[in-house]
Specification:
This is N-acetylglucosamine-6-phosphate deacetylase. The protein contains 9 helices and 21 strands. By secondary structure, the chain is α/β, with parallel strands linked by helices. It folds into 2 domains: 27-72 and 367-398, Urease, subunit C, domain 1; 75-360, TIM Barrel. Strands 1, 2, 3, 4, 5, 19, 20 and 21 form an 8-stranded mixed sheet that branches. Strands 6-9-10-11-12-13-14-15 form an 8-stranded parallel sheet. Helix 2 runs parallel beside helix 3 (167-176), helix 5 (216-225) crosses helix 6 and helix 8 runs antiparallel to helix 9.
């Protein structure tokens, strides 16, 4: 939700003077290291005409020398609660658009708006508002994180508002989203959990296992019922035990599951991230932000649903008990950390930030990779993997900073 009137955000999203729009003139990026589905091309070339990537560009194209830089696909965030001081759960339309724009400035060209636990009527109304933004192309859909989660693993969700995943209540949210619901996070071991997974699968909505206290065996049942995502793997679920392997083991070992990871250096130890990549591979990992209002905004006090959050040194925690409350992560930082700290290849980072989430959303025919005919969504990074430009649908959101 939007920062409480008493919030003490200290920073603001960066502003940039846009580069001339490619909708008026085709553009060619030359000299860059271009990361393609087939591999990385040094001294590569990428042409954009209108809103699409093209195989060739007309002679009147504007040529940009991007030597010494990487060109990668725009980032795709499956799980994001807000940014720029604004919340997708409770902010106004203008607030939501501000949050979306904040993440676009950091390379996220496609975003699924996530809600937090609330009462059912409020969530249904929020779904209606967010569905309008999805219809306008501002977001790629809606993710409901709560209220159908375990009180044992509630994280930063209000326990008083939690409920079992009754399929009729799950259906209420799906209907309120008017075809724009993309994902629902469930503690599938709760009464109604498996039936709700089946309902979601039947309606083409991703059933995600998360905020769960399930056993290994219960998690296998959920996967067999149709669950396909692990909500922020490792976080808000039992740890791996040698006699009780728990949900993490079941989720990592099954090829049907895509695992979300929050790569901010707070939610996961680097060894846990490496474990996930070793067992799942980049094709089954989706980096997410799980961002809250403070992302791209600054330290201070905020509200996450009815719960007050203190953000200090970029880490968000509930004021009441210190529980981690989402993140202030942006996906450009997740990319940079993946390559420079975690030791992932650039290709694997691109897969986890763009190709895998695009495929999961069923949008890989238009986004997620740099191929002719696809949307001209791209990010420019320098040799240190600092963001230097963002293009969305052929328009520069952040004009190229190549000096």
């Amino acid at each position: 939700m939007a920062a409480h009137p008493g919030a003490r955000g200290t920073a603001r999203p960066a502003t940039h003077h846009p580069h001339p729009a490619t909708a008026d003139r085709p553009t060619v990026l030359t000299g860059a290291t271009v990361v393609l589905p087939t591999g990385t091309v040094d001294n590569g070339r990428l042409a954009v005409d209108g809103t699409r990537i093209t195989a060739t560009a007309p002679e009147n194209a504007h040529v940009i020398d991007a030597t010494g830089h990487y060109v990668v696909p725009g980032f795709v965030d499956l799980h994001n609660h807000g940014g720029g001081g604004a919340s997708f759960t409770s902010g106004s339309v203008d607030d939501i658009l501000k949050g979306i724009h904040t993440h676009r400035l950091h390379g996220t060209t496609t975003l699924v708006a996530s809600t937090v636990t609330g009462d059912m009527d409020s969530l249904a109304r929020r779904a209606g508002l967010l569905s309008e933004l999805a219809e306008q192309g501002e977001i790629a859909g809606i993710h409901f994180e709560g209220p159908f989660i375990s009180p044992c693993r509630k994280g930063a969700h209000s326990e008083e508002l939690l409920r079992d995943p009754d399929p009729a209540q799950v259906r209420k949210l799906i209907d309120a989203a008017r075809g724009r619901a993309k994902m629902v996070t469930l503690a599938t071991e709760l009464p109604g959990g498996l039936d709700s997974v089946r309902l979601l699968a039947d309606h083409g909505v991703i059933a995600a296992v998360g905020h769960t206290d399930a056993t290994y065996e219960q998690t296998v049942e959920a996967i067999d019922a149709g669950a396909t995502v692990a909500t922020h793997l490792f976080n808000a679920m039992p740890p791996v035990g040698h006699r009780s392997p728990g949900p993490i083991t079941a989720l990592l070992e099954d090829e049907r599951i895509t695992v979300e990871l929050i790569n901010d250096g707070t939610h996961l130890h680097p060894a846990a991230l490496q474990l996930a990549f070793h067992h799942a591979g980049a094709h089954r990992v989706a980096f997410i932000t799980d961002a809250m209002d403070a992302a791209g905004f600054g330290d201070g006090r905020y509200w996450l649903g009815p719960l007050e959050v203190e953000v200090a040194d970029g880490v968000a925690r509930l004021l009441a008990d210190g529980t981690i409350a989402g993140s202030t992560l942006t996906l450009d930082r997740a990319f940079q950390r993946a390559v420079t700290v975690d030791g992932l290849s650039v290709e694997d980072a691109v897969t986890a930030l763009s190709a895998t989430p695009a495929r999961l959303l069923g949008l890989d025919d238009t986004i997620g990779s740099l191929e002719p005919g696809k949307s001209a969504d791209l990010v420019l990074l320098d040799s240190a993997f600092e963001l230097k430009g963002v293009m969305r649908r052929g328009e520069w959101v952040v004009g190229p900073q190549l000096g």
